[in-house]
Amino acid sequence: MSEEERLDEIKQLLKAMIRNKCVNPPGNELRSIRTLQDYFAAHGVESQIFESAEGRGNLYARIEGTDPNHPSLTLGPCHVDVVPVEDPGTWTVDPWEGVEKDGFIWGRGAFDMLFIVACQAAVFASFVQEGFRPKGDLVFLAVSDEEAGGLFGTKWMLDNHPELVKTDFAVTESGGFPIAPSRYVFMVGEKGINWKRLKFRGEEGHGSMPYGTPNAVLKMSQAALRLSRYDPPVETKFVGDLARGLGLSRLTRFFLENKSLVPLAIKLSAKKDIGMAKVLHALTRMTISPNVARGGEKTNVIAGQATLDVDVRTLPGQDDEYVVRHLKRALGDLAPEVEIAKVPGVPTSVGNASPSQSDFVDAMREAVRQCTTPDADLVPMLLTGASDTRFYRDVGSQAYGFSLFDDRLKLAEITPLAHGDDERISIGTLRLTAEVYERLARNFLTLP
């Protein structure tokens, strides 16, 4: 198929998956999994659906390589589930309509990460149609449940069908953002997830006579403020990789690689580019964000119980003991009154990373240069959130966040798109991402 035909198919696939509304929870991802299977069937691609739970499934397809000793590659795991929309009224368009306007496809999941699903599916289908015979195996894997931990998606597939989906390399979300002229971020790793639930106790009493009665909601409120104001120790290793990759001046690098000067560097950055400041902050420490508060039963009853769910993201090397120690330090004299536990149903992960230099990274860089300019380069970075790449790294694969964005949006405009209002992806990014995946797979899987 021509590039224009492929681009049109990508747009139609993307719109269809937005309209499928695979909101997690509960997921119902089989809607989009079957949309993808129907698309594959129309292009002569054999695929299999593996149902991991009611209404939930994962789609697998493979092009066999000619050399069993050649490294293999997965396009994916790419997830089809999306997060809810809290208030559709704050959007410029209907978040579930899959609107195309102003050079963008708009809708929940367009950026995270249905555009990659559509691009990878279209590239895989075009390879099958042309009769592409790679030396190494090429796998396509679309999955459920990434937005709630991946237990019914990537992890389920690796636990139950590792012989099918485990490959040497994998490319998925998120990367390819233009961060400087001819410089594009690729995600070599990610921070860990260690969500905590803080439990507070007070004494129930009549709300008309609060004096002298311990109130669990007040304790929780004080704790939330203390956590939000706490500064965990600064770590410069990962921001240093970013600074060197960007080719920043020695003075700027000195600021970013000096632990005592990093806070000042972030404040100065925020005045020019709040998006970059957010990234620098997240890459230089464990972050603590108290986000969900619950307490009390009735307005005229003093709260006897309250809970605070805290989103904690850790750098590689920061374990559970490290997290608890710093939470207690942040809470100060409140710490003895707080029970710290895991948030039920949310798996904990540790920070993890793949090599930032390798033959595969060289192949990614060359693919980007073929799609952009001969002097283009890749800048290694940690993903501040979490993705399914951690499951591939757990089984020994090298996995990267890799796509290719055009210049329609600046970094400060790109970073709020995930889970945000007016989520969208540019048509130019669809074109570039499909092209870079095709060139990467074609080049790497036919290397001598």
Structure description:
The protein has two domains: 3-190 and 351-444, Zn peptidases (Aminopeptidase), CATH 3.40.630; 192-342, 2-Layer Sandwich (Alpha-Beta Plaits), CATH 3.30.70. Strands 1-2-6-3-7-17 form a six-stranded mixed sheet, sandwiched between helices. Strands 10, 11, 12, 13 and 14 form a five-stranded antiparallel sheet that branches. It has helices at residues 3-20, 30-42, 110-130, 154-160, 162-165, 216-229, 237-246, 250-257, 262-272, 274-283, 320-331, 359-371, 389-394, 411-414, 427-444; strands spanning 48-53, 56-63, 73-79, 99-101, 104-106, 138-143, 169-172, 178-180, 183-190, 192-193, 196-201, 287-295, 305-314, 339-342, 352-353, 377-383, 398-401, 424-426. Helix 1 (3-20) packs across helix 3 and helix 12 crosses helix 15 (427-444). The chain contains 15 helices and 18 strands. It has 448 residues and is of the alpha+beta class.
Integer average pLDDT: 94
User: Which blocks of ≥5 consecutive residues have pLDDT under 50?
Assistant: none
CATH architecture annotation of the largest domain: 3-Layer(aba) Sandwich
What is the radius of gyration? 23 Å
CATH topology of the largest domain: Aminopeptidase
- The global form is globular
**Top-tier CATH class of the largest domain:** Alpha Beta
